[in-house]
Design goal:
The strands form five sheets. The protein has a seven-stranded mixed sheet with strand order 3-14-16-15-17-19-18, sandwiched between helices. Strands 5-4-13-7 form a four-stranded antiparallel sheet, with helices on one face. It is of the alpha/beta class and 588 residues long. The protein has 18 helices and 19 strands. It is globular and about 85 Å long. The chain has two domains: 34-141 and 393-520 and 559-587, Aminopeptidase (3-Layer(aba) Sandwich), CATH 3.40.630; 155-168 and 181-384, Glucose Oxidase, domain 1 (3-Layer(bba) Sandwich), CATH 3.50.30.30. It has helices spanning 37-58, 76-84, 89-99, 109-125, 181-188, 212-222, 241-250, 262-265, 316-321, 335-342, 427-445, 462-465, 467-475, 477-483, 508-515, 523-526, 533-540, 567-573; strands at residues 66-68, 73-75, 128-142, 149-153, 159-162, 192-193, 198-202, 204-206, 231-235, 255-259, 290-291, 330-333, 379-384, 386-400, 405-415, 452-459, 484-489, 498-503, 577-583. The chain is 29% helix and 20% strand. The chain crosses the membrane at residues 41-59.
Length: 588
């Protein structure tokens, strides 16, 4: 057992002592103008669903149970009405505005302030034992004043094209905007966390999605068995970006460019009037930021919590040697920039199923077409300016003690760190989590208390690699195995059409039951006879037949994967999880 697990840091101010007592112990939101009525309805819908999932579990985990109160009995219907009457969309809007004033990447002062503000909000909302728990972890940052760039070079080093390394700010400005010019610049930087710092100058090779089968096809059909220091041009999609980098590096790549192809991100076409801000599709200079670390959690403390009193088991050099951190520069590009590379490339045409959505002939390379003129491209250069730093992150924990089984925990979580402002990912979920906590705290004030303890978790460091939640799970593994019944995760609420759920089969019926009790806020859906969010979910996502034993009334439910904070709870400890969001059917 790790030292301190029994007391859950009982010797520190940022502990969870109260939990172990068996006694009752993207842009700022205003840049999207005011929050729409539909989005407020959507967030309320998410709050209702999350709350009903909790109600189904805080008792005996059965449907239509009676939930005992400390002083008097409440039925499940009583609790549902009590909670629903407490939900306020305006409070969620206020929370969302509060946490999206500035870019707030993990480990920055801006994100520390966001965590402090959320902690104070939770205390005001009535959660018990609210505290921030710190970890010292390895994080990655770009040079905020020297953007990463890609340069196409001709004869004698002549610059034929150079990216700016910045995504232009396309959001409308309001007079009440408090964002500084520095904030906007930091929001524009194009980067991938944990990329190696450095410069690579070589020839490009098109590698499709960068999957092992793609590299095998390059060797079999095009005779490219090794990349020999060349620059791999890889599309976003299908696999985790860190795996793409790892596969390319294993085959000798000197650098990797991961680009967003309009086939995936500009469904109505790449023209400016068909992308943001005129639609939700990615504009031509937009990029997908993310992490390329090949593990979850702090890379220097595998399987151990990154506490001050624990040694770092691994050095940065060892993490790179073991391929957990890349040894080569990696950069994201938008399709307006990558076309400057792809349209110049030589070599054979790509297979038909490797073509993307740009109006060019996609070619394998290596290298560029040579037409015998002075503007022929000769080399491609990738410049990445990045740093690795030990920084402090802080998880926010708050509880509502259970009345009869306080050592049985129902956990709800979300993260609050963001690549930029985080108005959708993750802070739409942050607003939902705060309102769920407030509603349950209000119910306690009105005489009810859950049978089991509710644990509310706002994680830090998620974007860099699920770091906050992973460190928490590693520190309190034995306690969580003994006490955690379920973990509910809500990361991003980005759509207003249909509920999407990922969970384990034993929770399918509980999820469906909760969805059937949430009224449908979308008028067009109600006009079609879909009176609950279950009806819409079932209509748009009918069961695929993956589980032949299921009732046909169960909509399509996927098993939980990776990519968000439920992962360590399920994969490391085997704790049941539910991950839910909302999406538009048109997204596929």
């Amino acid at each position: 057992m790790l030292r301190g697990q029994n007391s859950l840091r009982s010797d520190q101010k940022s502990d969870l002592t109260g939990l172990t007592d068996s006694k009752i112990n993207s842009r700022p939101w205003y840049h999207f103008s005011s929050m729409s009525i539909m989005h407020k309805c959507l967030l309320i819908m998410a709050v209702c669903f999350a709350s009903l999932m909790v109600v189904a579990i805080v008792g005996d985990g059965k449907e239509h149970i009676e939930l005992p109160n400390v002083t008097s009995g409440f039925t499940e219907d009583d609790i549902r009405k009590l909670l629903f009457s407490s939900f306020e969309s305006n409070k969620m809007a206020e929370t969302l505005r509060m946490v999206t004033q500035q870019p707030h990447q993990a480990g920055t002062e801006e994100n520390r302030v966001v965590g402090q503000k959320l902690a104070e909000l939770w205390r005001q909302n009535g959660l018990e034992k609210v505290r921030l728990m710190e970890y010292d972890v390895l994080l990655s940052y770009p040079n905020w004043t020297n953007p990463n760039k890609v340069t196409v070079l001709g004869d004698d080093g002549k610059v034929l094209f150079q990216s700016t390394g910045l995504s232009p700010d396309l959001t409308p400005k309001n007079d009440d905007s408090s964002s500084s010019q520095g904030d906007s610049y930091r929001a524009a930087i194009q980067w991938l966390a944990y990329s190696a710092n450095g410069t690579t100058e070589s020839e490009p090779v098109y590698c499709h999605y960068g999957q092992p089968k793609d590299f095998e096809r390059l060797e079999k059909e095009f005779g490219i068995s090794s990349l020999h220091g060349k620059i791999a041009i890889i599309r976003y999609g299908l696999d985790y970006r860190g795996d793409k980098v790892k596969h390319a590096a294993a085959r000798g790549a000197g650098a990797v460019i991961i680009f967003s192809d309009p086939a995936e991100v500009a469904g109505q076409g790449p023209e400016a009037d068909k992308t943001f801000p005129h639609s939700t599709w990615l504009p031509s200079h937009g990029v997908q930021r993310g992490s390329v670390m090949a593990m979850k959690g702090d890379p220097l403390t595998p399987l151990l919590p990154a506490r001050r009193d624990f040694p770092k088991e691994r050095t940065i050099q060892q993490a790179k040697k073991d391929h957990y951190l890349p040894n080569i520069p990696v950069l994201p590009l938008g399709y307006a920039d990558v076309i400057q590379i792809l349209e110049r490339m030589g070599g054979p045409q790509v297979p038909e199923d490797w073509r993307g959505g740009l109006n060019i002939t996609y070619r394998i390379g290596p290298g560029f077409k040579q037409n015998g003129n002075k503007n022929d491209a000769k080399k491609l250069r990738v410049d990445v300016h990045s740093t690795l730093e030990i920084k402090k992150i802080q998880n926010l924990i708050g509880i509502i003690h259970g009345s009869e089984e306080p050592d049985s925990w129902v956990m709800l979580g979300n993260h609050y760190d963001a690549w930029v402002y985080g108005a959708l990912d993750p802070n739409s979920g942050t607003a939902v989590l705060a309102e769920v906590g407030r509603a349950f705290a209000q119910a306690v004030k009105r005489g009810w208390r859950p049978k089991r303890t509710l644990v509310f978790c706002n994680w830090d460091g998620e974007e860099h690699g699920l770091i906050g939640s992973t460190e928490f799970v590693q520190e309190f593994a034995q306690v969580l195995q003994d006490r955690a019944i379920i973990y509910l995760n809500v990361d991003t609420i980005a759509s207003n059409q249909s509920l999407i759920v990922k969970t384990i089969p034993s929770l399918f019926s509980a999820v469906v039951s909760a969805a059937k009790k949430v009224p449908n806020p979308v008028e067009s859906e109600r006009a079609k006879g879909r009176q609950t969010i279950y009806d819409t979910w079932k209509a748009y996502y009918p069961q695929k037949g993956n589980f032949t034993w299921l009732s046909p009334d169960v909509p399509d439910i996927d098993l939980p994967g990776g990519g968000t904070d439920h992962m360590s709870f399920l994969n490391f400890l085997g704790i049941p999880v539910v991950d839910f969001t909302y999406r538009n059917v048109s997204w596929g």
